[in-house]
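Table S2 (continued). Query chain:
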Amino acid sequence: TAYGLHRVLGFRRVLCRLRWETGEDAELMLCQLEVVAGNRIGLISDIAGEVARENLNIRNISSQNDPKTQLSHVQFKVEVADLFALSKLRHGLSRINGVERVRRVD
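Corresponding output:
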């Protein structure tokens, strides 16, 4: 059980009780992440390797390079069982050489 703080109609904040099931019968959740990193050879390979180390599956992946900043914006959807797996993956991705930011995209 986790708790989330949500705005209701932009006026009040309400603390909601959330539940993310885990275990063999739990459905996997599809989360979209974005990794922003310096453009370099092997970046996508390193990202995919980190996902594989966590024993997770990438559904799709795309990358765009910004020539002005020399940053790559890599977005992908990954299947995760729970928030702990997602948090662990985000931490691992943030430790990849050249990564500036890892964020969840809605």
